[in-house]
Amino acid sequence: MADHTHASGALGRTVTTVGDQPREFADALMAFLSTARRTRGRLQPLFDDITVPQLVLLDAIEECGRDGVGVVANLTGLTQPTVTRSAAFLIRDGLVRYGDNGGDGRRRALELTERGSEVLAAKRDVVAGHLAGAWDDLSPAERALVVPLLRHLSELVERLF
């Protein structure tokens, strides 16, 4: 097998492999994760009324807020006190409210208000519009693969790390 030299090592370093596909996969995935970490703050200029961390929290609350603050914390990788504090600001701004905890006093359910749902949907549209250029750069074959592959890789990374 031929040597492959590329500049997508885990920290952007040049990596040479000799048919070592698991290593190439690891290097490419680490490069992707590193790029995502470095660039995630670049979305903030798209929003003037909400922060990216607040948007992430709104998304998590929509997904699992009814299961309580602890589940939201687990999904976002934040601590429960951080989620509780951040949720308090979102509650103050009318985007989130405490939900029915089903009689379980140990669990503090969260849910989006109508305004919170509208803000989240609008910001998702802004992000989608911003990323449309990347979608346009994909070939039809890449488009058919990219969404299921990204979802699957997200699940794998979640399990591995």
Automatic annotation (TrEMBL):
Xref: InterPro entries: HTH-type_Bedaq_tolerance, HTH_MarR-typ, Tscrpt_reg_MarR-type_CS, WH-like_DNA-bd_sf, WH_DNA-bd_sf
Domain HTH marR-type: 25-155
Record Gene3D superfamilies: Winged helix-like DNA-binding domain superfamily/Winged helix DNA-binding domain (1.10.10.10)
Coiled coil: none
Sorted UniProt keywords: DNA-binding, Transcription, Transcription regulation
Membrane-crossing segments per the record: none
GO function terms (MF aspect): DNA binding; DNA-binding transcription factor activity
Organism domain of life: Bacteria
Entry keyword annotation includes Transcription regulation: yes
Pfam families referenced in this protein's UniProt entry, alphabetically: MarR_2
Protein name stated in the entry: MarR family transcriptional regulator
